[in-house]
Known about the structure:
By secondary structure, the chain is of the alpha+beta class. It is 16% helix and 38% strand. β3 (70-76) and β4 form a beta hairpin.
Amino acid sequence: MALASAPSIAQPTQGSGCPPGLVTAIRRAVRERDDWVQTAQRVAAEVQHHLPGPRMLTSGERQGDLAGYQCHLLHSEADGAFSIVAMVWRPGQVTPIHDHITWCVSGVLQGAEYEEIFALRRDGTVLAEVARRVNDTGDVSGFAPPGDIHRVRNHGDGVAISLHVYGTDISRLGSSVRRVYGLPVA
Length: 186
């Protein structure tokens, strides 16, 4: 299977901060120690209930970067159980097709994100698009590997901002991406 290296996105920077109630709720959901799918579902419910607005970032952080989408590390749990990141997307910015090393929950704080979901076909030599969705402001979703191959883009005219919770400490790993797929899409 032909795979490219991990995307060269900006390393997370320490953001303005994360609402303490959100951190406490996620911590409680993660500590129930179920499988990844159930954990993602529980964390998504908590994020939906505690979803902050884009003003949790400074005005400078909310501008984004013309060079590519930005990641702002808002919280990493001391024991490595989860991280909370805000991503800022300028119009047209897109991820490569990728999967993740662990479960993930995302919530859109501003704008909208267009997501394409893929599955491996033909003995892992081709990707097939299996779903598309628009995640609007206030939408929250979660997933867990396997079945987490996707590409996300800001297809709107303004800056999009989303909150992502990953089931690992990305400040230690540098990214939540396990692999980037350079395969053809059938």
